[in-house]
Amino acid sequence: MVNLMKKILFLLLLLFIFPLSVFSYDFNINSNNVILINLNEDKILYEKNSDSKTYIASLTKIMTAVVALENIDDLSTKVFLTTEDFKDIYKYDLQTSGLKVNNYYEELLYALLLPSGADAASCLARNIGGSVSNFVKMMNDKAKELNLNNTKFANPIGYDDVNNYSTVKDVSILFKYALNNETFKKIVTTFSYKTHDNITLNHTLNYYANKYNLTLDNISGGKTGNETLSGYCLASLSLKDVDYMLITTNSKSSSGQLKDALNLYKYYRDNY
Known about the structure:
Blueprint: H1 2-17, E1 33-38, E2 43-48, E3 54-55, H2 60-69, E4 78-80, H3 87-92, E5 102-104, H4 105-113, H5 118-129, H6 132-145, E6 165-166, H7 168-179, H8 182-188, E7 192-194, E8 200-202, H9 204-211, E9 221-227, E10 231-239, E11 243-251, H10 254-271
Antiparallel strand pairs: 1-2, 1-11, 3-6, 4-5, 7-8, 9-10, 10-11
């Protein structure tokens, strides 16, 4: 019995002296900025340049959705797209959702987060904030409320602007906060949605998975982004017996960001 206790104490001592390899494994990450969190334990498992300033492209739309959801009284209210909502799209060559003129707020939110529609972002900002500039102020006020001290927003879309930036750690705080809203969580974990006038809104994750013949078996949803300053970005979720969140920015390829997520999720599910 005494020998057994000595062996157990020796093994425990080894664990403290030589940490499990899960924390030092070389993942060959494509993205420059990374943070992986175990949501059940609220614990950071892996990080790389997580506090460094990074441009975040359409991950900006996470905050756009948060401010919208917290200021919409009725998701079934109809709102209308106007030429004003396409002004920046033509100027910056941005992604549109394919929506028609009249839509419900709920549909605009799906258009915002699934195909990453810049038209939906502008329409939400204009209708909720009274103007896009006032809505951006609301976004920055919310960032201060959440103590996102290294985050600033310049537009609700996420197109390149030196004053639209964050860190992956700040984005993880924002994303986790957003997931407390059941509507937000439902939307970002939906891969295809049909509007009242039969327009199908597909998640950009579907597009990338099909393009590179990758399976999304360990990815439950999220939000993608891509601009010149930010590279390819991804805020993703893996929701199973253990829930994980991963934020990555500055990958040089869309396949790289997706492979980072698939590799990290698989490794931690197999070993952590």
